[in-house]
């Protein structure tokens, strides 16, 4: 059984989307991460060396979302998952959710989101 580090709704302003207006105007996105790893050693030792810093994990996701442009939020989520698994060897799996509350959909809705899970085996 693996433990979890949870990061809820990290807000970023970015220019992701298919439409030219999304690139020109930008909009807010929310990133949520669920990192799966064994936190037993960190819990017993009270030493950060036994875990993944949630600050570093959040910074990686923020950097990817704000320094690059993606047409699809699926591609944004995939890149965050892939790069986080590469950067943090202790991670066994990562779930990434990208919420797009202002998606240009001509219907009344709170927003759209994608959620993916990638494991070290993928």
Structure report:
The chain is an alpha+beta fold and 122 residues long. It has a single domain, classed as 2-Layer Sandwich (GTP Cyclohydrolase I, domain 2). The protein is built from 4 helices and 4 strands, in the order E-H-E-H-H-H-E-E. The longest helix is centred in the middle third of the chain and has 15 residues.
CATH superfamily: GTP cyclohydrolase I, C-terminal domain/NADPH-dependent 7-cyano-7-deazaguanine reductase, N-terminal domain
Helix content class: 25-40%
What are the low-pLDDT stretches, counting only 5+ consecutive residues below 50?
none
Number of domains: 1
CATH class category label: Alpha Beta
Question: Would you tell me the overall average pLDDT?
Answer: 95
What's this, in brief?
This protein has about 120 residues and is α+β, with helices and mostly antiparallel strands. It has helices at about 20-25, 40-45, 55-65, 75-85, and strands at about 5-15, 25-35, 95-100, 110-120. A 4-stranded antiparallel β-sheet has the order 1-2-3-4.
Question: Topology of this protein?
Answer:
Layout: E1 3-14, H1 20-25, E2 27-37, H2 40-45, H3 54-67, H4 73-87, E3 93-100, E4 112-119
Antiparallel strand pairs: 1-2, 2-3, 3-4
Helix pairs in contact: 3-4
List keywords for this structure.
four-stranded antiparallel sheet, alpha+beta, single chain, 4 helices
